[in-house]
Structures are given as structure tokens and as C-alpha cells.
Specification:
This protein is α+β, with helices and mostly antiparallel strands and 204 residues long. It is built from 2 helices and 11 strands, in the order αβββαββββββββ. The strands form 3 sheets. A 5-stranded antiparallel sheet has the order 1-2-9-4-7, with no helix packed on it. β5 and β6 form a beta hairpin. The longest helix has 41 residues. The radius of gyration is 44 Å and the shape is elongated. The chain starts with a helix and ends with a strand.
Length: 204
């Protein structure tokens, strides 16, 4: 066998090896690609779960705080005709009772506050005391629970009732207004006293 024939065989062997290795690499890469594809599908899966807690009930309703003999009246502004302060002179007091009732619908319980105000020079001189559960004899309050401090300047009084009101329940408030002995007000002064009762629903 001459040298040229040997060279031709070596060239064919090298070409065959190149083709074989080329096919192997292609198969290896395709296999790797398939594995990557399988991995991508697997990581896209996810699990979900849910639980339920039965027994919770929501009821609708309306909240309504009533004063005196009114029953779900609107607008909620009342003239407290039973509390007459005419003729209040320095060193004297006048008192009256005011029922506060929960006439809400839907089983609504609420808390509330008592706020007072009075304009002008006479109003600035007046003092107020409020008692929950007390009675009035026209000049003072007897028994009950004092809300806040006694003889608070009427324009700064803002106190919580200190107890909630369940539906159809009532509190009897006794309010005493005093004109201190040392008060100096212009003659024939007058002032319109306002009592405000903000109410807030609470969990019953």
C-alpha cells in the first residue's frame, strides 16, 4: 500500500470520527434541552388551599339616640322645655332630668358623650354638673354618678356617659347649671344653652 492510499484512509477515518462526534454532541444538547424544558414545566406548578369558618352573621340596623319623649324623631334637635333657667342669679343653681334612650333598630348598642355650650358673657360665667342616674328637685341633683367634675365651665364640658346603652335601654341624666356667686355679668344678659349627645356604635 503506497503512501497516498494510507493518507486517504486517514482522512476518511478523521471525517467519520468528526461526523460521529457531531451527532453525539447534537444528541447531548437535545437531551439537555429536554431536561431544561421538563424543569420549566415542573416549576410552573403551584398549590392552593382554602378554609371556611361558619357561623358569622352580619345584621343591618340603624342607630338612634332619643331624648325626652321622642321616638326616632328627625331632625334630632329637641327643645328642652322642662329646663327653665330664667331668673338664675349669682350663687344659685337650677336642675332638671333628661332621659337618654337607645331607640336603635337591629340590636345596636352605643356609647355617647355629653357636651355643653352657651354663648355670650352669661354663658361664659355658667358652670354645669351632670349626673347619670340621679334625680332632680329643681335646684340640685341627688344620687347617681357624677360625670367628669362638678361645676365645670359650661363651654368646656365634654364627658363620656361612662356606660353603654343597649337597645330600648335608657339613662336618666340630671343636669345642674350654676351661676357662681362671684360671677359678674351685664344686667339682663341671656344665653342659649346647647346640650349635644354624640353617640357611637359599640360591639354588643
Amino acid at each position: 500500500m503506497d503512501r497516498r492510499e494510507v493518507d486517504r484512509r486517514e482522512v476518511k477515518d478523521r471525517a467519520a470520527r468528526r461526523r460521529w462526534f457531531g451527532r453525539g454532541r447534537t444528541r447531548a444538547l437535545l437531551s439537555a434541552g429536554m431536561l431544561v424544558g421538563i424543569g420549566a414545566v415542573a416549576t410552573s406548578a403551584y398549590w392552593t388551599d382554602a378554609e371556611q369558618v361558619p357561623g358569622t352573621t352580619i345584621n343591618s340596623g340603624t342607630m338612634h339616640i332619643d331624648l325626652a319623649a321622642n321616638f326616632r324623631q328627625r331632625p334630632e334637635s329637641y327643645a328642652w322645655n322642662a329646663f327653665v333657667l330664667t331668673g338664675l342669679t349669682p350663687g344659685t343653681s337650677k336642675s332638671a332630668e333628661l332621659p337618654v334612650t337607645n331607640n336603635s333598630r337591629g340590636g345596636v348598642t352605643f356609647s355617647y358623650r355629653i357636651q355643653t355650650s352657651a354663648p355670650g358673657a352669661l354663658g361664659a360665667a355658667l358652670e354645669v354638673s351632670v349626673y347619670r342616674g340621679a334625680t332632680s328637685n329643681g335646684t340640685t341633683c341627688t344620687g347617681g354618678t357624677l360625670l367628669g367634675s362638678a361645676n365645670t365651665p359650661i363651654n368646656t364640658f365634654d364627658q363620656a356617659a361612662g356606660a353603654t346603652l343597649a337597645p330600648t335601654s335608657s339613662h336618666n341624666l340630671c343636669v345642674r347649671v350654676t351661676l357662681p356667686l362671684a360671677a359678674v355679668v351685664p344686667p339682663s344678659s341671656s344665653s342659649a344653652i346647647t346640650f349635644t349627645f354624640p353617640a357611637t356604635q359599640v360591639n354588643s
